[in-house]
Amino acid sequence: MKTGMKYSKLYPFGLGELTASGWTKEQLERNRDGIGGHLDELEPLMMYTPYTERRTEANWGGSGWGAEISGNYWYGLIVLAFTLDDEGLKKKAENWVNAVLAAREEDGYMGAYAKTDDRFHDYNAWGTACGMRAMLAYYDATGREDVFDAVNECMLWFCRNWRDHKTAYAGNAITEVMLYCYAKNGDERLLEFSKNYDTFMTADNTYLTSTESLESDEWVYNSDHTVNYGTALRRPLALYGATGDMRYLEAARHGLMKLRRYSMQLSGAPIGNDEWLSPVSMVGEAETCSFAVYGYAYAMYSQLDWQNGEYGDYWEEMVFNAAQGARKKDERAIAYMTIPNQLECSEASTSSHIWANMYAPCVPTSCCPVYSVHVIPDYVRHMILHDGRGNLTFDMYGPCELNSWDWALTVDTLYPFRGEVKIKIHKAPGEKKSIAFKIPGWSTDSCMKLNGAPISVREERVWAAGDEIVLNFGMEPEVVEIDDCDGGDKQPLALRCGPLVYVLSPGENWKAVGNGYARTPLPEGWTWYSVFPKDIEPRLTALDFNTAAATVKYEELEPDGYVWENPPVRLTLDGYRAPWAYAKFFVHQAKECYGKRVKVTGKKPLELIPYGCTALRITYFPRADI
């Protein structure tokens, strides 16, 4: 946001100052032409009118859903518009923002609930938080003070009307928006309300997301909606940012580490079977919403608690694997739920909603499509952070361009498919400034050079136009033993190299299924899809740790087109055929094999591709009994 927070170590650049290039630009352009630029046309009563007219399609569940879904869509569209620097999307954003401002009430309320609705409902606070984050993003990009002032007045409406009323589920998200306003104007009413809300969460700890619960070592599956848990982590982060009270930061740290220990896949996907906190397993589901929610949480962690770049690593892990693996590559459809061992995406392939594995532009619960718009532009705009004094920190890597203050630079790279990152400086301050570089936690060795000479991980000097920095991070393939002791307890094996998880693909047959389960008929050119495997043999595969480790090879291929369609990397290794691992006939739903070892009949060569490059995959391999 424009002001950051009082106790931030680092800050994002203003929205629009860090823009996409290379493969990130190509992906954002596809998203502009796909879901990102058109969801408001596919579902206008859910995407456009909730805030502009306080009118929502009743069949979708009323004002609460409209508040969340519309707010999150416009946040995504706004960050997409300015990160892509697309004038058409910027104009669309401006029109929506102006319409929202025109619809605000005299007492400051600017949410999506009509006067006849129950404005004490949990989703009024939660949904309004989504919409006001969109408005603050627009303020961040444009500096329009009338937008900030309107958001601030809306927050004061909640301070007055919710002073003696709180809700235990998602409503506490309103405090995050309040505390961003507080960082700019210092209005103590916003801080007092936010602290009181945190105290209320202790008194009504229904979902075990109080600050005390986050501090504890206890982890309870099914205690909270997995996406809501990610939102709850942001509450103590924002309170720390406003107060500097280390207890809030420690609670947020501990709460995240518990999630990563118990409920996170190797792909970076937070696990939510039936959407609620669940253990690691071959078939543990991840909701696409979570990739945006936890991504933004990682942004807050990096800004408030940057140490060695670990939060940037976590975000890259999720963006490059889980998030990319849930998107159709033309950006015109996403899957609501995905799993590590995804054999099929159809009505028959999920234990959740019947449509949850199908690929669709807009599903009946359209939270995931709108959240999918955030993921890549949010990642791009947080790659490089600053300390408020003109010093830079690279928290993540990927192709981008920075134009801000006295800095102008370009980042040219095929990362995460390559370990080389080239940074070309075009304009620099005329005084000493530092640039700090994250060394990824997975890197086996690293080398940093400026104009051919070695430099340190944090280099301070007077930089000049024409300086070229080249970073090289060594990537070595790794066989990973998966701890699923609370899930299937199969202790399967997986492959990783650098930030990418590698999978065995059965090939894909995409079948258009028309309107699918869409509530509003889709216009021409839009469709739902089922995805079926070309070959069922890949599921009959097992690995041995020692054999895999001894034979795995990493190969870089010549780039050929869009990297998420034609990956310029692969792993090869020896696996084993396991003809009895599963039932003889094809089973649509992924299942876990029986026992911790499976019988095998001999070796077979395997070729693995990045997780994010396929909708169908085997990620977790049973262990061969040899």
Helix content: 25-40%
Structural class: alpha+beta
Counting DSSP H or I runs of 4 or more residues, the number of helices is: 17
Adjacency order of strands in the biggest sheet: 2-11-12-13-18-15-16
Cα shape: globular
Strand content of the residues, in percent? 15-25%
Outline the biggest β-sheet.
7 strands, antiparallel
Residue-averaged pLDDT: 95
pLDDT < 50 runs, ≥5 residues = none
CA(first)-CA(last) distance: 56 Å
| Strand segment tally | 29
* Rg computed from alpha carbons, rounded to a whole number of angstroms: 24 Å
Account of the protein in words:
The protein starts with 10 loop residues before the first strand and ends with a strand. The strands form eight sheets. A seven-stranded antiparallel sheet has the order 2-11-12-13-18-15-16. Strands 19, 20, 21, 24, 25, 26 and 28 form a seven-stranded antiparallel sheet that branches. It is globular and about 75 Å long. With 626 residues, the chain is α+β, with helices and mostly antiparallel strands. The mean pLDDT is 95. Helix 10 (188-203) packs across helix 12. It is built from 17 helices and 29 strands.
